[in-house]
Design goal:
302 residues, alpha+beta, Multidrug-efflux Transporter 1 Regulator Bmrr, Chain A, three-stranded antiparallel sheet, 39% helix, nine-stranded antiparallel sheet, 8 helices, single chain, elongated, Multidrug-efflux Transporter Regulator, Chain: A, Domain 2, 22% strand
Length: 302
């Protein structure tokens, strides 16, 4: 058996170590390149990798984390933590996985309803009932001209929830501090699709009371975070009110589709990009509390 030339510790060849660790030599070479599992000794003349028996447990932990589906980059970070921190990292990762699975389970029900000819399926209680609520009620309201401060960003759907909270929070703080106060609820305008593959842009807006102060704020902000100010012209919207639970994807798709279908039935036309109007403090709302209007600007069809 080979021994480490400096420590005298017994060494295992890559084949022996692979068998004990239940990993292939190819995987061990990959993990070495990533710095995830470095050989204890590499023979300078032959390039052969050698490992110690003490590294087997580390390797088996990596195997288990991979079976969990954890990306290699996350595994690299996790195994460098101490015991309790590593345990918390695994728990956090799995909570995120379960959240994604719940979303996909809901999306499966939505797609089954849609593809089987039941429309969006969002009001069919026979499949995944937790995703469905009452039938969306659509109505219209006239919105007066408003002066808004805003932030625009190109982003994908997974970035959207965090960005909406952060951007509207920044804007509301600026409105209260520098622009005479908040004049109406914050809203988010989708100038193009925001999905896993399409990056918008989206625009977060907060109506303010002092237009002159808002223009001064925009100049001072220097377009930080895509900051700007503008006039939002008077318009009519068709909208439906949804709960905090229904804001989640894909439930919110059913709300958008319900408004679009209503607009078509009423002989109206959409005159601008769709939007979400948030009229309740998000953090204090419960799952069944109304928090958002899903809306389209509309006008009589020409």
């Amino acid at each position: 058996m080979d021994v480490h030339p400096q420590t005298g510790e017994p060494l295992l060849s890559i084949g022996e170590f692979a068998a004990r660790a239940r990993l292939s030599p190819k995987a061990l070479r990959l993990y070495d390149r990533l710095g995830l599992l470095t050989p204890a000794y590499v023979d300078a003349s032959t390039g052969y990798r050698h490992y110690t028996a003490a590294q087997v447990e580390h390797a088996r932990t990596v195997v288990l984390l991979r079976r969990l589906g954890m990306p290699l980059a996350d595994i690299t970070a996790t195994v460098r933590l101490d015991g309790e921190q590593a345990g918390r990292a695994v728990a956090t990762y799995w909570a995120d996985v379960e959240e994604r699975h719940a979303e996909r389970r809901t999306l499966v029900g939505y797609l089954r309803g849609r593809l089987s000819g039941r429309g969006s399926g969002m009001t069919d209680m026979s499949e995944t009932p937790e995703m469905y609520g009452n039938e969306f009620e659509v109505t219209t309201v006239d919105v007066p001209e408003q002066y808004v401060i805003c932030e625009s960003r190109h982003l994908l759907s997974e970035e959207l929830p965090v960005w909406i909270g952060a951007s509207t929070g920044r804007l509301e703080e600026a409105a209260e501090r520098e622009c005479g106060g908040i004049a109406a609820p914050a809203f988010v305008v989708y100038h193009a699709e925001v999905t896993q593959d399409s990056d918008g842009p989206a625009e977060a807006c907060v109506p303010v009371r002092d237009a002159a102060a808002a223009r001064a704020w925009a100049l001072k902000a220097g377009r930080q975070h895509g900051s700007n100010s503008r006039v939002e012209p008077a318009h009519r919207i068709a909208y439906t009110r949804i709960t905090k639970a229904q804001v989640s994807y894909p439930q919110i798709l059913g709300a958008f589709e319900a408004v679009e279908a209503w607009v078509a039935r009423e002989g109206l036309q959409v005159t601008g990009p769709c939007r979400e109007i948030y009229f309740v403090e998000w953090d204090t709302a419960g799952p069944e509390d109304p928090v958002c209007d899903v809306a389209f600007p509309v006008a009589p069809r020409q």
